[in-house]
Amino acid sequence: MLDEPDDIHPLxxxxxxxxxxxxxxxxxxxxxxxxxxxxxxxxxxxRWLVCLSGGKDSYTLLAILHELQWRxxxxxxxxxxxxxQGQPGFPATVLPxxxxxxxxxxxxxYRDTYSVVTDKVPEGRTYCALCSRLRRGHLYRVAREExxxxxxxxxxxxxxxxxFFLNLxxxxxxxxxxxxxxxxxxxxFVYRPxxxxxxxxxxxFARAMDYPIIPxxxxxxxxxxxxxxxxxxxDQWEKNHPxxxxxxxxxxxxxxxxxxxxxxxxxxxxxxxxxxxxxxxPEIPVLR
Length: 288
Fold this sequence. Notes:
Elements: H1 19-38, E1 47-51, H2 56-70, E2 77-84, H3 94-102, E3 106-110, H4 113-120, H5 128-145, E4 150-152, H6 157-171, E5 180-182, E6 189-191, H7 199-209, H8 226-240, H9 244-252
Parallel strand pairs: 1-2, 1-4, 2-3, 4-6
Antiparallel strand pairs: 5-6
């Protein structure tokens, strides 16, 4: 279905004709379509605000979503959005020019969150948390103004795994980025259609397509980020045991509350042996 050279979205024009790239493209379409179906992301007639940072992941997200829409497999309206955060040296014309050439409906929003972050965050501390909150708030606002029902982000499988270990090691909780989330106000969904996609596939795809990648110099230039340390740890595990990332990711979809320690998820106190309950059994004393 994906091999006809004349039946292709503009975002795929100029794609390599190699067998390797065709397999990569099919795998990306399959993984994204699987995540959209598995987590119930489709509302017919909905409008999605697809967030485009200019990194490899968001370019991959934009291309695959338009591929699915192009082929009638994603019955939603797509509006690409880039939030220009006022970073010094940010190439402000790259994304608008690219989106116009590709015929992609879009909105460029300028908000100087860079100055806010650098002013509020003490020297030596990382910018990520505050930057993310400010960015998310503006994207929610834009989504409401544009009549969108969902904000769509480019987080992939590896982002989800890294967040899981960040929460495990630093937050003392078992949690990660969910593929589908309802915001606190209850009026917008947050979707992550790349949830099943490996970061390496995003990198190979964006490089093969020669998309104009824009690096994040705000947080990416900071050394010693906890996420970078987790990423290095996962890289080493993957190097020593290929396929470990995918196994860990599958484990997130195979939770067993009865084999964890959270009594709010499983009624440990209510467990009884077969034939243990009797009508006149004595009441269990409360331990003090």
